[in-house]
Design a protein that fits this description.
Elongation Factor Tu (Ef-tu), domain 3; OB fold (Dihydrolipoamide Acetyltransferase, E2P); Rossmann fold; ten-stranded mixed beta sheet
């Protein structure tokens, strides 16, 4: 009793207490008669400040604050895949079954199912020498994912007691390890890990592998590397959530962790309803068999919203340590930053730009730094790719969250409201977006399809930039006054935008496009441009070159040529070559038809 602290003041999710000299910073505590979950965020002699991850309504001065002697942690083990959690890893389905539609206060830190029996295949035997991060058992968690039980961090020694393969719950001790000092360490089917601390690795490696998404503007123009960092900023209605859905559904990561951080309830309802129905095109199995969902809607406690990002990244690191490639979707980091701002205001901290706390840049950096392509403690290769949506108010990319995020990510996919309103999706603006991974992925492109994708992409980007400059002239004096080669640039740029960059998520053929087909499609456009330039130099009129028939066939190949019928693209390329040969022969024979 004398070790417990006493609440002295309450300000929303932030409470102050005294008698806290025995507490530690970042320690998880239980507050009041309902044992609300909180975290110590500052200490000053005997006084302390705690942020509470549940609704503090009904809490009063004089209530007790109880030690747990551990930081806020999550349970990591079988039962994560296919599950839906709140911001502090409490299972929403179980809560609904037990308590109804709303999460009551004081239900504790329930997480994984402790009664379910898992079919465990133990792969070590008594006498084996094992070390941290090594696999000691496996569980077929879903058809798509084998869950690997790892030796906990900091444990090394000889297996002295091991259970045979069989059915066990997560609390069962499946083996014991004796270290050099003779101390015994128990290995269960789960680990606990503090969410604010990155899980350790052996070595951070250079990113060099493409995260394939089947989305042309991503795979070719603004590629994402496995272990990379991506920001998707955009105003309301520009398609941030839809772009992340396409990532989640089609990218070739082994596991998806989707965090709905502070989003509207109807958006999260759509995710929770749609994801279980989606079929993974890579495996043909339900997408939920490789997905973990974390839902923290805007009406949930604000402190839990701040924690949800860390809960998600910790789960992602856990699967990375098994040797999996994990992609984490954070939708949206702006809501997370707003939670930081609200808590900072209640703490009466000195505000920085637009009221955000001064430490906003370091928090954003710390989050994105947890991405990476690594060698794990168990000598596996794994990666965590972070794809964060940003929701700048009014679509203003100069606001603090977008600006600071831009400093720490290597792929910036700026969504454009004008493109969205024109129904051009994905509404990624090719002039303001960028990827710093193109050169690092050059060799991987060659390994994947045997083609130099980067050089071809650069040539197409040059056409788009030239077209943007020419549009200023066109707006002033019209297109007719431009020389034919510049009019050809305008025509081909339109071909790139409509025929390649625009992609229909609801079309069976166009929703997912293999990388080789993407390359061949762009090569057809390049072929048209090169032959068109030669024709212009031979004084063939531009209106003959920009034939509506050819244009229709090129922009229509994304719908009309199936992904496994790539020979049709080669036939179209030959047809284009024949078209220009006929033009030239007609011109050489003495003139063209009017």
């Amino acid at each position: 009793m004398e070790n417990n602290a006493i609440v002295t003041s309450i300000n929303g999710p932030v409470i102050n207490a005294n008698n806290m000299s025995n507490f530690q910073a970042k320690e998880m505590v239980l507050v009041g008669p309902k044992k609300l979950i909180g975290e110590v965020i500052s200490l000053d002699d005997d006084e302390g400040t705690i942020q509470v991850y549940e609704d503090t309504q009904g809490l009063s001065a004089g209530d007790e604050v109880v030690h747990t002697n551990m930081p806020l942690s999550v349970k990591l083990g079988p039962g994560l895949i296919g599950n839906m959690f709140d911001g502090i890893e409490r299972p929403l389905k179980v809560i609904e079954e037990k308590y109804g539609e709303f999460i009551p206060e004081g239900i504790g830190l329930m997480s994984l199912d402790e009664e379910k029996l898992w079919d465990v295949d133990v792969i070590v035997k008594e006498g084996d020498l094992i070390s941290q991060g090594e696999v000691v058992a496996t569980i077929k968690e879903t058809e798509a994912i084998t869950h690997k039980i790892l030796v906990p961090y900091g444990v090394k020694g000889r297996v002295v007691d091991v259970k045979p393969s069989g059915k066990y719950n997560i609390n069962e001790v499946i083996l014991k390890i004796e270290d050099e000092s003779g101390e015994l360490h128990e290995v269960k089917l789960y680990q606990e890990w503090p969410i604010k601390f990155p899980r350790p690795i052996k070595e951070r490696l250079e990113v060099s592998k493409l995260l394939k998404t089947g989305q042309r503007i991503l795979d070719v123009f603004f590629p994402v590397a496995k272990g990379g960092t991506v920001a998707i900023p955009g105003g309301f209605g520009t398609g941030k959530t839809m772009t992340q859905h396409q990532f989640a559904r089609y990218c070739d990561a082994d596991i998806i962790v989707y965090i709905g951080c502070g989003e509207r309830g109807n958006e999260m309802t759509e995710v929770l309803e749609d994801f279980p129905k989606l079929i993974d095109p890579n495996t043909g199995r339900p997408l939920m068999e490789r997905t973990v969902l974390i839902a923290n809607t805007s009406n949930m406690p604000v402190a839990a919203r701040e924690a949800s990002i860390y809960t998600g990244i910790t789960i992602a690191e856990y699967f990375r340590d098994m040797g999996y490639d994990v992609a984490i979707m954070a939708d949206s980091t702006s809501r997370w930053a707003e939670a930081l701002r609200e808590i900072s205001g209640r703490l009466e901290e000195m505000p920085a730009e637009e009221g955000f706390p001064p430490y906003l840049p370091s928090r954003i950096a710390g989050f994105y730094e947890r991405a990476g392509y690594v060698k794990t403690l168990g000598n596996e290769l794994g990666s965590v790719t972070i794809i964060g949506a940003v929701s700048p108010q009014g679509g203003d990319f100069s606001e603090p969250v977008t600006e600071n995020t831009k400093r720490y990510v290597n792929v910036f996919l700026g969504l454009d409201k004008e493109l969205a309103y024109a129904r051009h999706y994905p509404a990624i603006n090719w002039l303001t977006s960028y990827s710093k991974y193109s050169d690092e992925l050059k060799e991987d492109y060659v390994e994947l399809i045997g083609k130099d994708v980067v050089t071809l992409k650069n040539k197409m980007m040059k056409i788009l930039f030239e077209e943007d400059k020419l549009q200023e002239i066109v707006m002033l004096i019209g297109e007719d006054v431009l020389p034919d080669d510049q009019r050809l640039t305008l025509f081909v740029a339109k071909m790139i935008k409509v025929g390649f960059l625009q992609q229909n998520a609801f079309n069976k053929i166009d929703s997912y496009v293999p990388l080789l087909k993407q390359y061949k499609m762009l090569e057809v456009i390049k072929e048209f441009y090169d032959l068109g330039l030669e024709a212009v130099k031979k004084n063939i009129p531009i209106n003959e070159i920009t034939s509506s028939t050819v244009y229709t066939k090129i922009v229509g190949m994304k719908y009309n040529i199936e992904n496994d019928k790539l020979e049709k693209i080669d036939e179209l390329k030959e047809e284009i070559e024949q078209f220009f040969e006929n033009l030239e022969s007609r011109y050489n024979e003495g003139g063209l038809d009017d």
